[in-house]
């Protein structure tokens, strides 16, 4: 039975009404649906579902790590609501995370710190500290939330015996338009093979385009892959628009495939054949070094655009960044980042034949 305070089954609305923490008098935080699914609310925006019988996959679905990336928030909110209303019977354990509720309320990517730059301990909070005792003055809400998300993901994966299949799909949208509307960032695997099953699954989500990272990162997906051995991805779903203004039909295959994944419904996948995909390696990252950093092309230029060799891409005080290689394309250009953070990635097509399993 749903508790009275969640009787509308609108977990997103409840989260946004309590953006920083759960009300202290809330009871119960653990309840069971009539179909036997155990529901636990661990924190604001964090809900863990365990069906009575479940398969071998432990699945984390996250959204709203950037507050203005709303299509993913709508996808996850609809899935959670359908689970709570028993319109969707789970066949796997699932943890949903709505990453940054205050930023979602503000319609902003971040309030103080970009959460997707402070995982894998980059938040600076050691494991033995009580996060609740840390104030905003000392460490921002967003860094504290990163530390908490790490704890929740660890708790979720470690609550069951080892040896099960772990996945984490961190749903985002890009700031600007993209020549490939939907694409995935595959975190650096330190030489491990890229997963053919995951390529096929994400192709079923209508995501045939991948950026293969070549270095460690402080993103959520890299954290899950590296720390927990999860199949983890950042999924980029279209261009950021205000909540309620997304054309959700463009993401129907993502929503339907995720729904099937967590409920054990059939998913039609094709065996991995590299030529069915657009694969890019992230060839270099351009980091903002000074406040003078500026991009030298129009905001209308889309992700994956290839500019002619020698084109001036960005200036940073006396440094000039130009297109260095034929086929290089721009990804995630953003001058409005903190000093030291990446302001653009450069990618080029790559083949990974023989490096998949
Ligand atoms: O469009 C943009 O500039 C950013 C979209 C976005 O938030 N992308 C993620 C990618 C994370 C990764 O590299 O796995 C980010 O920048 O955090
Ligand atoms: Zn994002």
Automatic annotation (TrEMBL):
PANTHER family: ASPARTOACYLASE, SUCCINYLGLUTAMATE DESUCCINYLASE. It comes from Rheinheimera riviphila. This is Succinylglutamate desuccinylase. Residues 276-349 form the AstE/AspA barrel-sandwich hybrid domain. Its cofactor is Zn(2+). Pfam families: AstE_AspA_cat, AstE_AspA_hybrid. The lineage of its organism: Bacteria, Pseudomonadati, Pseudomonadota, Gammaproteobacteria, Chromatiales. Keywords: Arginine metabolism, Hydrolase, Metal-binding, Zinc. GO terms for molecular function: hydrolase activity, acting on ester bonds; succinylglutamate desuccinylase activity; zinc ion binding. It is an enzyme of class 3 (hydrolase). Gene3D superfamilies: Zn peptidases (3.40.630.10). The active site is at residue 236. The gene is astE. Zn(2+) binds at residues 66, 69, 172. NCBIfam families: arg_catab_astE, PRK05324.1. It comes from the Bacteria. HAMAP family: Arg_catab_AstE.
